[in-house]
């Protein structure tokens, strides 16, 4: 049975991914492990992209879109527990990268995208804010960059190579998933579905 049209994401879907991670020997240096974590991240970003697209196309109103985004966020950002501490850290990294995606989608639904600066200026401003330890400002700048991605602007992700490893680089990684999701919102197939 297919999901009802208004179900963009479910706890069961998230749990299926977590079960796969539980069953796998995860090594972030291993291509298959990295792909599994990226698919987990992309799958959630695709769900967000579908909510925003449904709102843009008039299929759902702003309040419904906000509720849907919040529901996905609550599922994806709920605390996860594994017997393996490294798996917890890896999934936590995925969750952190998606924080910016959720906020960007909510900001887009509420206020649209800004037109006062280029997308890369926002990313650089976020990096500068992080360097000054102003994490809230850094997130705010990247949320604006995210709304621009939703509106169809493209961010050249080679900029990520210039970033110091930290929250901004992790959030930009999430925006990469959002950009992919907006351009090709195909569902990431869960392998080995029971």
Molecular structure report:
The protein is mostly helical and 194 residues long. It has one domain. The chain contains 7 helices and no strands. Helix 4 crosses helix 6. The chain is globular, with a radius of gyration of 16 Å. The protein starts with 10 loop residues before the first helix and ends in an 11-residue tail after the last helix. Pfam families: DUF2150. This is DUF2150 domain-containing protein.
Pick out its properties:
single chain; mainly alpha; DUF2150 domain-containing protein; UCP022079; disordered N terminus; 194 residues
What is the fold's blueprint, element by element?
Layout (H helix, E strand, L loop, with lengths): L10 H13 L7 H26 L5 H15 L8 H27 L7 H13 L3 H17 L15 H17 L11
Organism: Natranaeroarchaeum sulfidigenes
Protein name: DUF2150 domain-containing protein
Pfam families: DUF2150 (PF09920)
Order of helices and strands: HHHHHHH
Helix percentage range:
55-70%
SS-based class = mainly alpha
The profile of the biggest β sheet is: none
Low-confidence stretches: 1-5
Strand content: under 5%
Q: Mind telling me the C-alpha Rg?
A: 16 Å
Number of domains: 1
Number of helices: 7
* Tertiary shape: globular
**Mean of all residue-level pLDDT scores:** 90
Distance from first to last alpha carbon: 14 Å
Number of strands: 0
């Amino acid at each position: 049975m297919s999901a009802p049209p208004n179900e963009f994401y479910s706890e069961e879907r998230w749990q299926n991914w977590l079960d796969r991670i539980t069953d796998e020997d995860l090594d972030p240096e291993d291509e298959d492990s990295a792909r599994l974590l990226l698919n987990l991240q992309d799958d959630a970003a695709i769900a967000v992209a579908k909510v925003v697209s449904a709102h843009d196309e008039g299929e759902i109103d702003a309040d419904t879109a906000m509720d849907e985004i919040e529901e996905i966020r609550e599922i994806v950002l709920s605390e996860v527990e594994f017997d393996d501490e490294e798996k917890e850290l890896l999934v936590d990294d995925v969750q952190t990268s998606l924080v910016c995606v959720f906020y960007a989608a909510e900001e887009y639904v509420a206020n649209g995208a800004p037109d006062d600066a280029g997308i890369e200026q926002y990313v650089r401003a976020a990096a500068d804010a992080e360097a000054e330890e102003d994490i809230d400002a850094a997130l705010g700048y990247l949320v604006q960059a995210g709304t621009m991605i939703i509106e169809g602007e493209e961010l050249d992700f080679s900029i990520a190579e210039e970033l110091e490893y930290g929250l901004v680089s992790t959030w930009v990684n999430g925006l990469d998933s959002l950009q992919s999701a907006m351009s090709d919102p195909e569902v990431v197939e869960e392998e080995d579905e029971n």
